Amino acid sequence: MIKRTLEQIAAMAEGTLSGAVLNAAAGGDFADIPIQGVSTDSRTIAPGQLFVPLAGEHFDGHEYIDTAFAKGAAAALWQQDHPLPPGNRPLILVDDTLHALQRLAKAYRRELALRVVGITGSNGKTTTKDMTASALSTVYQVLKTKGNLNNHIGLPLTLLQLDETMEAAVLEMGMSSRGEIALLTSLAEPDVAIITNIGESHLLQLGSREEIARAKTEILAGMKDGGLLIYNGDEPLIEQVLPEMPQPAALRLLRFGMGTDNDLYPVSIQMDGQSTRFLSNDPDAPEFHIPLLGRHNVTNALAAYAAACSLGVPADKAAEGLAASSMTSMRIERLEAPNGAVVLNDAYNASPTSMRAALSLLSELTGFRRKIAVLGDMLELGEGEAAYHGEMGRKAAESGVDLLYVYGPRSRNMAEAAAERMPADKVRYFPDKPEMIQNLVSETSAGDVVLVKASRGMKLEEAVQALLCK
Asked: Which residues, at least 6 apart from 29, have a Cβ–Cβ distance to it below 8 Å?
């Protein structure tokens, strides 16, 4: 984590020490206070950290300054449009605490001798992040984005978690509108950027897949000169919008995907129900073995492999790291239920692209008595949501699903479309989640494989938990 004096922090955040602090600084007190780490949460702040009180529409962290100092905060940022709190506390006055946090993170990143990989895309960001970090960790000390800290607050906090021993960072970059990736990449200044794909997530906000592609390719804006962009060559929209985007000098490009016109592609894929083995067209690469299922994860692995190799990791070491990858939960997480059923927990999020991939995986699995899909609403799809849900119902029927459980108001279209192509008694629509879970648990038995997938807001991990308790 960042370790600097209060005076150094003030300079990096482009703030000024408060008057009380300046007076004490003349005596050599406050200016030399050591800061070890940064927190925006007064409830969990650790002794010695800098407290950053963020102000939002429905909250204001400045109201919790007493709690932060009571728990050991060494100092705090303070937004100048707020009255100074009572007492002679070490404060750094700034125009805006969020912007100051971002400036601090950017300045700190520039002080570190660090290799940075930035990852964005509609689907697969987190899985690709996990695999890239694992491949790099065979050679370097690596920090990766934790959880969902991939936005304008989370990414700066991740950068400030780095310490001087770290040699590489793998940073996930999320967005919901134009300009957000441009901000994140300007803070991270990646040496390598990965665009996993362009899907339909955020159609509600952006209106078209072309605009989504433009939003994702904003990652170029902050890249270092001579940087490498690794992008999904199976998606023509990326190449379509690339010429429109600000780019670093001497940008290098590498295309990955399933198509043989890409620079890097698989030439054989084998799944055993628990993991995937595959070969690639790279003559220097060994056979790959990843602890994940699905062809889409093969392409994610190829992107991670390319990023690691571009930063000096030998091919065999990169493959070794991919095999040892530890995945963030709820991304096609294979679990064993007590009754002998296999549960594929992919309940973290869903879009048409990721749901197609999950259903394709289900269709390819062999050796199970029955294939059961538990699907819920896909959110933020805009005007086309009814058509997309209908398409997923038809896809489920074509994938050989034996039983389809559907939950959510938007997913009624999914159930109706599926019932046109498979026996109506095998399609079960539930507007009530507890009722669906109860029915699902009573129906599932040994030899079944159950795929669970929906957007985050549907919380279908509750169905997974119920199956695991059976």
From this structure: none
